Amino acid sequence: MRLLRYFLFRLLQMFPIALFIVVINFALIHLAPGDVSILLAGEGADPEYMQSIRESYGLDRPLHEQLGAYLGQILQGDLGLSFRTREPVIDIIAERIPATLLLAGTALVLASIAGVAIGAVMARRPGSALDTAVTTLSISLFSIPVFWLGLMLILLFAVTLRWLPSSGMVSIAGPREGLGFVLDVVRHMILPVTALAAVWLGQYVRLSRASVSETLAEPYVTTARAIGFPERRVMTRFALRNAMLPIVTVLGLELGLLLSGAVLTETVFSWPGLGRLIYEAILSRDTPVIMGAFLIMSFTVMLAALLTDLLYAALDPRVRL
Amino acid sequence: MTPTAAKTLRATVASVPGALSLAVFLVICATALAAPILGLPDPADMAFALYQPPSAEHWLGTDNFGRDILSRVVWGAQVALTVAVGAALLSILIGSALGAIAGYFGGWVDGLLSRVFDIFLLIPTFFLILLIVALFGASLPLTIVAIALTTWPRSARLMRSQVLTLKSRVYVQAALAAGAPHWWVIVRHVIPNGIAPIITDGTILMGMAILTEAGLSFLGLGDQNLVSWGSMIFEGQRHLRLAPWMSIAPGVALLLLVASLNLLGDSINFAMNPQLRTRGGAPKRRATTAPPAGETAPAADTPILEVDDLRLVYHAGARRIAAVDGVSFTLPRGGSLGIVGESGCGKSSLGSALLQTMPNNAELTSGTIRFDGRAIVLGGKPVVENGRSRIDALRWTRMATIFQSAMNALNPVTTVRRQMMDALRLHKPGISREEATARIAEVFAMIGIPASRMNAYPHQLSGGMRQRAMIALSLILEPELVIADEPTTALDMLIQDQILGEIADLRERLNLSLILVSHDMGAVAESCDVVAVMYAGRIVEIAPTQRIFGNPAHPYTRTLIGALPSLTGPLEELESLPATDTAAAAAATGCRFAHACPAATDLCRRAAPPAVPLGAGHVSECHYAEDFAAEPSSEPHAAPAAAKEARA
Amino acid sequence: MSRPILQLDALRMVYNADPGILARLSGRADPPVIAADDVSLDLHPGQTLAVVGESGSGKTTAGRIATLQERPTAGRVLYEGEDVTALTGAALKAFRAKVQMIFQNPYDALNPRLTVGQSLAEPLTLHGLVPRAGLRAAVIEMLEAVELRPAESFADAFPSELSGGQLQRIAIARALIIKPRVVIADEPVSMLDVSIRSGVMNLMRGIQRDTGVTYLYITHDLSVARYMADRIAVMYLGAVLEEGPAETLISRAAHPYTRLLIQAVPEHRASATRRTRIRLPGDAASQAGLPSGCRFHPRCPLAQPICREKAPPLAPVGAAHRAACHFADDVQTHGLGAATAATA
Ligand SMILES: Nc1ncnc2c1ncn2[C@@H]1O[C@H](COP(=O)(O)OP(=O)(O)O)[C@@H](O)[C@H]1O
Ligand code: SF4
Ligand code: SF4
Ligand SMILES: [Mg+2]
Fold it and tell me: Where are the residues of the annotated region Disordered (chain B) (predicted)?
């Protein structure tokens, strides 16, 4: 009951944020150099379409009415048409989301699980040579530009060794169903997932190392040891459980940024996901698609933040609901 | 430079990652600045053969237009550093100003601004930058502004939290109370003390900015007129098969610069908070020893605890702190010992040594601890029998502890009842749920916790109740010995008194042996048969309670007693010690109290005093112990009516 | 009795009185906290008034209002008979030069980036009391006055190099360097070691003897209050329960709470014998959700039905001695005797 009330309250708080994001979007279109109608319809669009755009966005009316019209469009789920393909933007985006989720989701799961585990092990021997080395290594990992790491992986495993495919999600002449298809996709996933996961891994190692070592220094851990709990249980029951709280928060935010986190990786590997779509849209200056993708991504982040809050509240009795 | 800044710098350089990253960063900066005078070919000059691999002439080869890659990498460093410094500065300037305003003035200003900071957390920032650059056209200044536009809330949040803590700092309050205007307080007290983490975070911001710019350039959204590492990789990608060196060199440069910045930030952070690097951890493996030969079975009069020449040393960097420095005492079964001394004298360290729960930087260098006649520590090493440490067999079932701050000593995310249940089940695996619940209820009732509070989380209890819960937890397995480390510090007077009474009652009822640690002579006076006074790691005097108050034979004990104002006696001027530093004490060659002792002589400064036995278990470590013992402390005086009645 | 130099008149302080719409909507509004409820106290020149109470009793709030670091929700602060409650700007600064404050935590009292000398000179500069050239001499003189010798080397030290006792002496010096008439000291020794405490208390008493400064001394320890003060006020949950001359208040306490406090002081003389404690019915005390009637009744061993219904007024029980208990006269003559017998 209290959790529900909390949820509703948090939901309520999201509205101004959502509005803010829409306004940013709106402001950007209007501040950008060039005619708004051309931005929205695309250069060289036929005059008829241009006119319909003008009308639906109310481009002849005062600015605040335009904002109203824009809001109205979005509330109806209408993000306009791509001027490359003339398909509704929302459909184009929806079509690309699964590929991105597959890639980024896999990377995130791998990176967070491995990262938390490695960080936790390092936290048991803080300040040791191994700890310092792993810390340095993980900092270096997330200092690598992900697109460059992708290139280097391609150079080594696709170009030189020829072990793995360098781009796309499926082989052109490969199977389209069954186990063969799955294996084909997996083969294509290995390199991009590795690139993305490597960079995220660094972050989770750092986070988990910091969080676990902080909990291990808490007096209640000393109490647990004085009571006689074996070290393994101290680690799982006390240290990890409590250290997960800050990690959950970051994970939640990361989850929200999942869709946009892979733009560069998808570009390098020509992965047919949302990121690649955005890249293509930028190259062809397909403004409606770019804007639409931005909105969708922002709303995903908000949703993830909301869920994280709830999860946190459920995990930590100290959170005041 | 203030001592803190100099110390931080020294500590940063002292660590390998710190020194390394600073060196790499400085070399890159120097190279970028020196680019025009290095005698390199013009980075845009298409003067050479295309696609040359690295050679003596072109160390990093040439690209698809025949340009020298080394020269392009060097000039690219200028762009990277411009972006880094520009974006970080802008972000810090905007962010700290708004963050400081939000934190300092609070109220609705803070409410509004914090909302805005939070919103930025929910925006996919890389994408927003993409959007801006895509819409407005690519140029370096715009890129810098766009990056700063998305990173300033990070600086703002940091500054806000800094200011919030600083605002409650006493010296800020004091300056305001002294009549200082707000701008003065901000400029003189808040900013100088709050800026360090923000500058540290600046290195991280710089790294983020460089990666973002490189990402943009890689997507073809870089400034076309400049040599950027990102755009070099962008071009290199298309010639990956033919000329891999085109993309390798700029990528390595990026990695080096960003990693050095991130590592530098991390090292400075560690240098400012050294405990971040070493705190926590699992208990380290220590050398153990076998049980001594010829141990006899405990008899009825075997003391519950015997401690002999215990020494505990902390290693803090290069320093050795002898926190417990040769402590010996014996506690008979059912007896109670009060250990009194001021903070830092080693009371808690002694307690942790008895329980073997010392932190990893602590080491027992000597000493024997016997529990019920059986050695658990011998020569500073834990005794292991049949592969199991003897202390492990005693934990909580025979020897338990009450920690000082129950708020932190109880697990915050588990109910009090659950924590007791876990302890019970750990040591009595066969116990049924009903039995366990009954036992928990029994202990709760005994200690005065209402049954309705059983399922509360620690934070839901009042301070007194929480401390009671801690006591209940310590008693759940009916231990024979309880070590209570300042169990009532930080509680209110009435509750302190109630809990001390509770502990004294339980001791009698359960025939517990008790070690009660306190900084307050008064707190132990009523609860303990014997009082030991600790000073700088040693027990300087130990005696039965009546005797130590009546005939204190050590000048330090005498001051401790004479320094307490009385509620009942006449108002006499209190004794006091000069405000010197006790740190000097441990280093002293002679008596460790000589630096503050009102009776110190040359002999005291030259030679450490022996332990002088004064009979009836009274021992004092002072050259003049006998003289002091002969002269009783001031007699208690007639008490006013109210106090008399209280004692009736 | 002389005219009071500083008066707190019927102060009322409510925190979180208006939690705002958002907080209320979410049901997360902090409950309003009554930190001071009709608190009236008089400070007489050259004397010390001790305010005694446990944490959350509102003693610090009273101190913060007396220095105008915080403005009361209702009630007045009078300095030499004049209402200063709403002072701002130059007048406020002038008031601050007269009414200074010493804080609890000495380890945090000085800006770590300034030398002791710089910190001590700050109030002088702020109030333009001493020309630039004379600052150093004034600082040295003050350091001597708080018995930190050699003063020269203390003036150049950074706070991190000093011990708690030394730091608190410097904090006292900073409060006194502009020669205020009133000093509010909020638990100035509670964070110091016992053997150092008495030195700081003696120093404060010596300075009062020499300069005639007035103290409002806040403490949780009744025996410290007795040592320092001429008069004692006992606070509980935001209200003064008993007030009177120090010796009378302790020897003829008229409020059950004061009696319990006196009993709770562990006596530390050789004759200390075990006391019979009264097990108090409750122990949580918080200003949120103030009990009806007498605010002490949930914990009072003498509580009667009337105590739950009617709040006792702060009424005279002797010369300059007031207490807020329906049975003050009984308590003053018979103590808690009846209750002890009942529960023993
Ligand atoms: N983990 C630690 N590392 C280094 N020094 C420590 C540590 N814990 C305590 N010390 C030092 O050891 C001395 C004794 O501390 P402690 O046993 O906590 O004293 P007490 O309990 O009497 O206040 C102090 O100088 C303290 O600073
Ligand atoms: S030995 Fe000397 S310096 Fe030490 S306590 Fe005794 S009299 Fe003081
Ligand atoms: S009025 Fe009643 S409850 Fe209040 S203190 Fe007096 S006797 Fe106790
Ligand atoms: Mg301690």
Answer: 279-299, 629-648
